[in-house]
């Protein structure tokens, strides 16, 4: 099928949709990018959509494995967010990585597509991930400079204070929940000046935990999520090693609830 307009999404778990689970969909997730594509198609059936993002990918992997594929699809619009998995490593040279990132953005922009980039989230409220806040700030300055150089739009995740509410996050405290992905979809569509009929889900009451209950919850989280995550890093493996892109070719989507 030929599409007059082509939206191609690149990146890692953020764009793949981890945290917004749906076992009926490829890779078992939906996510903000799918939701944006659905709304674009609802307004204009000429849109096609491909999502090349795979969880666990680092910047170099995203650039090496996804940029050529994206260019081959002749995109009208491209979204790119990668770097979170690099920032969380014990050691990382952000400056060196972002030189490669700039080259990838240049290739995408050269297609004539509208390019949409993301700043990293401000993890100030996280006792664990907050330690990487400085790295994210450096990453963000590079993203802003690269966007200026290539005329890209920016979804400024860093400045979205709503996401400091933990009800927008999955139980793993690393990925957005369904509510978070839905809100992000609306933010992206707002940047694109595109109409949407997305209803934000009602948030549950904010739980107030005693000190002991909070400690128990933290221990459970460390056992169920942090420990396995560290284990994969030590083994040099990724949760996305056995996965392929959700939508490697342009397709049409239908909006669901």
What does this structure look like?
By secondary structure, the chain is of the alpha/beta class. It folds into two domains: 5-203, Rossmann fold (3-Layer(aba) Sandwich), CATH 3.40.50.1110; 207-242. It is built from eight helices and six strands, in the order βααβαβααβαβααβ. It has helices at 13-16, 32-43, 59-72, 84-87, 94-110, 133-150, 178-191, 211-235, and strands at residues 5-11, 47-51, 77-81, 114-118, 153-155, 247-251. It has a six-stranded mixed β-sheet with strand order 5-4-3-1-2-6, with helices on both faces. Strand 4 (114-118), helix 6 and strand 5 form a beta-alpha-beta unit. Helix 3 (59-72) packs parallel to helix 5 (94-110) and helix 5 packs parallel to helix 6 (133-150).
- Characterize the overall form: globular
Number of helices in the DSSP assignment: 8
CATH superfamily of the largest domain, by name, is SGNH hydrolase
> Which structural class fits the helix and strand makeup?
alpha/beta
**Biggest sheet strand line-up:** 5-4-3-1-2-6
* CATH topology grouping of the largest domain: Rossmann fold
Question: What is the number of strand segments?
Answer: 6
Helical fraction equals: 40-55%
Poorly predicted segments: none
Report the sheet-strand fraction.
5-15%
Largest sheet at a glance? 6 strands, mixed
Radius of gyration from the CA trace?
18 Å
* CATH A-level architecture of the largest domain: 3-Layer(aba) Sandwich
Order of helices and strands: EHHEHEHHEHEHHE
Protein name: SGNH/GDSL hydrolase family protein
InterPro entries: GDSL_Rv0518-like, SGNH_hydro, SGNH_hydro_sf
Pfam families: Lipase_GDSL_2
Keywords: Hydrolase
């Amino acid at each position: 099928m030929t599409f007059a307009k082509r939206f191609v999404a690149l990146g890692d778990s953020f764009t793949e949709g981890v945290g917004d689970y749906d076992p009926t969909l490829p890779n078992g997730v939906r996510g903000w990018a799918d939701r944006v594509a659905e709304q674009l198609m609802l307004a204009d059936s000429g849109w096609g959509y491909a999502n090349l993002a795979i969880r666990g990918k680092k910047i170099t992997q995203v650039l090496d494995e996804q940029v050529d594929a994206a260019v081959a699809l002749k995109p009208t619009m491209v979204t790119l967010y990668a770097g979170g998995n690099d920032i969380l490593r014990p050691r990382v040279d952000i400056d060196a990585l972002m030189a490669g990132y700039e080259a990838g953005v240049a290739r995408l922009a050269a297609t004539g597509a509208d390019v949409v980039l993301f700043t990293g989230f401000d993890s100030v409220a996280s006792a664990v991930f907050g330690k990487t806040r400085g790295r994210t700030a450096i990453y963000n300055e590079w993203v802003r400079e690269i966007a200026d150089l290539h005329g890209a739009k920016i979804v400024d995740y860093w400045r979205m204070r709503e996401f400091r509410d933990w009800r927008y996050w999955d139980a793993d405290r690393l990925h957005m929940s369904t509510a978070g992905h839905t809100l992000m979809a609306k933010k992206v569509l707002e940047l694109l000046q595109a109409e949407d009929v997305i209803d934000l889900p009602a948030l549950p009451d904010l739980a107030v935990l005693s000190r002991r209950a909070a400690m128990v919850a933290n221990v459970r989280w460390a056992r169920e999520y942090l420990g396995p995550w560290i284990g994969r890093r030590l083994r040099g493996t990724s949760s996305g090693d056995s996965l392929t892109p959700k939508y490697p070719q342009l397709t049409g989507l239908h909006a669901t609830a």
